[in-house]
Design goal:
Helix content is 47%, strand content 12%. It is of the alpha/beta class. It binds manganese (II) ion.
Length: 176
């Protein structure tokens, strides 16, 4: 599987700009939304609302910076195979799935999850995340069994809106 990074030499500069955009955003993070102990309780119990499958370290920082300011408990998987494992263990309410990842890409990981779900009738919402602004990406995600699609670079508002749409605005606060 070809890494998106090896084919996009400007990615690092774009990634760093995105980190700065997030860190310097005046309205973010809205840390008053949730007491710190709720976040640590979530970690201690192993409960996960949002599983983020993302192999790029800079993007992992971006997701962490954004999600730390919310009430949603989250965990990051560094590749698709690990994402499937965490899904099996922790039953997240929502998965944000990068498309291009080592070991198992986002399309393959989605197919593996959907195959397991076929036996139970359950269905975890999966939102595909891709850096490629190519026409047809959304269709590829949907064909692989994903429910929705979010394009990079990730903005805090776009991420909030997407997670809220699938989980409800209150997230972990009301789900606890
Ligand atoms: Mn990737």
């Amino acid at each position: 599987m070809t890494s998106e990074h090896s084919t996009r030499p400007v990615t690092r500069a774009e990634d760093l700009k995105q980190v700065y955009d997030v860190l310097l955003a005046p309205s973010f993070p809205p840390s008053e939304l949730v007491p710190l102990e709720w976040l640590t309780e979530g970690v201690a119990s192993g409960a996960v609302d949002v599983l983020v499958a993302e192999d790029n370290e800079v993007n992992q920082i971006v997701f962490t910076q954004i999600l730390q300011g919310t009430g949603w408990r989250f965990e990051i998987a560094e590749n698709g195979a690990r994402a499937v494992e965490i899904w099996q263990e922790k039953h997240p309410a929502l998965i944000l799935m990068d498309v291009s990842m080592p070991e198992m890409n986002g399309l393959e990981a989605t197919a593996a999850i959907r195959a397991e779900e076929a036996a139970t009738g359950a269905r975890t919402p999966i939102v595909g995340v891709t850096a490629h602004a190519l026409k047809g990406d959304r269709e590829r995600c949907i064909e692989a069994g994903m429910d929705d699609y979010l394009s990079k670079p990730i903005s805090p508002k776009a991420l909030h809106d997407k997670i809220s749409a699938w989980m409800g605005d209150a997230g972990a606060v009301q789900r606890a």
